[in-house]
Structure formats: structure tokens, C-alpha cells
Amino acid sequence: MPAISLSKVTETAPALVESYRTAGASLVDRHLGSGATDPAFVVFQTDGGPTSRAAVERYLRKAAKLPLFWQFVGFGDPDSRQFDYLRRLDELAVPGRRVADNAGFFHAGADPRRVSDAEPYDRLLDEFPQWLVAAREEGTVRPS
To answer: What is residue 131's predicted lDDT score, i.e. its pLDDT?
Structure first.
């Protein structure tokens, strides 16, 4: 797979949504409406936490029953409390709060142009393989 610079992705990605809730609803609804059964890997780049935390958790929990994995990527001050919520969301209890660990979070630094091109691939895919195995075992994703 050809390397894609994280700074290039960040520079060219349009700001399509105003909130996590809107994005979560849109992605879940689009996936449900598409009839897709293959797993989807959602990358959500942000510079802070959501304003409606309960709604975000609700959509993440709803999506745990779907073949969707959410990878949250934070940019900005790594010590900002804005990212504490995403760290907690990454650790949301399984099976108590969701059927599978369908989300990951990592902080990519204050300046994405300073992150090596290789580092995001490792960090983006850190939790995805474990989710894929668990999602197949629990029936969310069809066996390959």
C-alpha cells in the first residue's frame, strides 16, 4: 500500500460535520441504509472532545452491534482535558456498556506535520485486528 502523509490527509480533509453526534448519527444511519455487511473502519479526527457526551456514547454503543470500528485521532495539546473523554470512551466496558470494543483513541500530537508517515498506520490499526477477531466471534462480522 502506498504511503499517505498524515499531514496531507489533514490538510485536504474537508470539515463536513459540526459535531460528534451529527457524525455518529450520519455514519450509523448510512451504514444501516447501505445494506453493507463488510466491516468498516471509521477514522474520526478531532481537536477536542464532544459537547454531547451522552449522545456520542449512545451512538458508539449502537454501532457496537454493527461491523463498524471507530478510530478517534486527537490533534492539539496532548495534555488537554478535552481528550480525557475520548480516552474513557476507548475503555468503555465490554460487555457491560457495549458488545465489543469497537473504538480506539490515540493522540497524534499538536502538529500532524511532525508525525512520521509510518507512525499513524501503526497507531491507527493498533486495536482494529483484536476488534475484528472479537466481532467475528460474536457474529457482528461474517467469517472470512
So the answer is: 92
Per-position DSSP letters for 64-116, written without gaps between them: TTTTEEEEEEE-S-TT-GGGHHHHHHHT--TTTT-SS--EEEEE--S-GGGS-
Distance CA 10, CA 22 (A): 20
Ranges in the chain, pLDDT < 70 = 1-21
For residue 66, how far is the Cα from the chain centroid? 14
Q: pTM of the prediction? A: 0.79
In angstroms, the CA 110 to CA 101 distance is: 27
Q: 68 burial class (0-12, 13-18, 19+ CB within 10 angstroms)? A: buried
**pLDDT at site 111:** 83
Cis peptide before 95 (omega within 30 of 0): yes
Residue 130 pLDDT? 93
